[in-house]
Amino acid sequence: MAEGRSAEGVHNARTSDDSVDEQSAVEMVYRPRPEDTLVGLRVRGRIKRTGLLLRGVFLTLWIGQWLFSVVGRGNFDLVSTVLFLLVVLIVWGYPRLQAASVQRLVGWQGEYRATVSPAGITCRTDHSTLTLKWSVFQGYRETVGHFVLLSRDPNIMYLSVLPKRGLHEAESLERLRAVLDQHVTRV
User: Fold this and answer.
1) Alpha carbons 67 and 61: distance in angstroms, whole number
2) Please, what sign has the CA dihedral across residues 166, 172, 177, 183?
3) Does the pTM exceed 0.70?
4) Which residues contact 51 (CB under 8 A, 6 or more apart)?
5) What's the rounded Cα separation, in Å, for the pair 178 and 24?
6) Which of 147, 172, 182, 187 could form a disulfide with 162 if both were Cys (CB 3.0 to 4.6 A apart)?
7) Do 154 and 48 meet the contact criterion of CB atoms below 8 Å apart?
8) Is residue 121 within 8 Å of 160, Cβ to Cβ?
9) Handedness of CA 131, 133, 137, 141 (dihedral sign)
């Protein structure tokens, strides 16, 4: 029998990249929810700040326009008020629309089985497998119910949200924190 092959002739040798330290690997099983994506988008917004600043400026300009319209004319203008309320609704609702859109992309895949190990993060569903090395991420932020990993690119175009509800063992939370602290920084 050749080295790295079983009796059936299937190659089963593992490279150093494929090997996982079973002691430090953390398994998670969860179904993505829109709230998970919304938390990730909020974290991204707080880190990046550009979106928050632009939304704040946009909203301030519309408030100013509405106040100028009402005070300048001395009466209540229905069109300006409706437009103002529409802008407030859009500014408030845009992250929720994004989260719902992402949910349509990932939700149909069902249950996610994530493995967080020294090699990186591997997410498996019935339809796909995605492996991300730690070099993809600039850091992570922990929230009450999630770990949000942020991509290294300047616009933070990729988020990986790991909901704590996916951990099924009490000591897994501390092991997950230890693996994350070892490979990426808290931001």
Assistant:
1) 10
2) negative
3) yes
4) 45
5) 8
6) 147
7) no
8) yes
9) positive
Helices and strands (DSSP H and E) totals, the chain: 4, 8
Structure token digits, residue 26: 């953390």
DSSP class per residue in 50-79: HHHHHHHHHHHHHHHHHHHHHHHHSS--HH
Report the C-alpha dihedral over residues 79, 80, 84, 87, rounded to 10 degrees. 60
26-30 and 137-142 as β-strands: parallel, antiparallel, unpaired? Answer: unpaired
* Maximum Cα–Cα distance across the chain: 93
- pLDDT per residue rounded down to tens, the chain (187 residues): 343 433 444 333 344 444 445 567 999 999 999 999 999 989 988 888 777 788 788 888 888 887 887 787 777 778 777 887 888 888 788 888 888 888 888 888 999 999 999 999 999 999 999 999 999 999 999 999 999 999 998 888 889 999 999 998 888 999 999 999 999 999 8
Q: How far apart are CA 159 and CA 29, in angstroms?
A: 18
3-class SS at 4? coil
The SS3 assignment for 154 reads coil
